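As agreed, record minuted below.
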Amino acid sequence: MAASPTFCIITPNPALDHILLAPSLRIGTIQRVPQTHLAAGGKGLNVARVARALGMNVTVCAPLGGFTGQHVASLAVREGIALTAVPIDGETRICTLIVDPTTDTITVLNEQGPSLTDHHWQAFIDRVLKVQATWNLICGSLPPGIAPTVLTDLIDELYRQNRYVLVDTSGPALAAAMAVKPDVVKINGDEAGELLGMSVTSIATAQQAASELVRRGIDTAVITLGAQGAVGIGRRHGPAGVIAMPSPITARSPIGCGDSFFAGLAMALADDRSLAEALRIATACGVADAQTIEPGRIDPQIINTLAQQIAISYW
């Protein structure tokens, strides 16, 4: 049996996720919180958590600083996530997720994160390149102090080393990555709309946006729309685009669903699955995540069952 492909999860702005379960939350009052969770967080660590659950060989590269950074590293190790940490000045950020199960609402407070010097960023990139992974997933935001164009340089270098690059980011960082045409871009409707200057809120507009990304040189473009599903199209997958639509579920939290989707997509593409099958698996991972409170805590045993419930069509 062939060894699993190696994945490098590039996480420029990791976080300590602090999840608070606060029933009947009342703003402006003092309340006791009956349940809390701490987890190594940020998009990349959520992706890694799911990727590892799916059996992928994963290494996370992340800049970490201060006591918070040490805690993130400790939590990652406790979960069995292989983490290559680059020490930096300042404290790794904390992201606070307040879940009110009474009203089915979630409030997310994301700290900005510490600024990185050019020296620390270069040390981070050097660690990424030393992993020598076939598949490289760039996940999440850039830290303060780092110009978006650094992603252009990083992707160029990864291509010089004949590696695959998959991107899930947003804003100026996404625009910079687009300049060097990543192999795979996975973004949500809001991120696609910001990039392309259009409203992407339906399957039809997502189809238009994905087609435009491919026209601009992206090999495989995937756009997610939450409960509506996802669309994808790619040069290597033939002329037809794919629509994946999940069955209705009772969701507990949307936080992390896109990260779980990205992990499933990467796993399936690395396994040389068709685009339709990749979207089916990815959507199943997103559905599994939606049924949990903590991001990335999917049960891999139910993915195949959920995947069979995903409706696939073509355009």
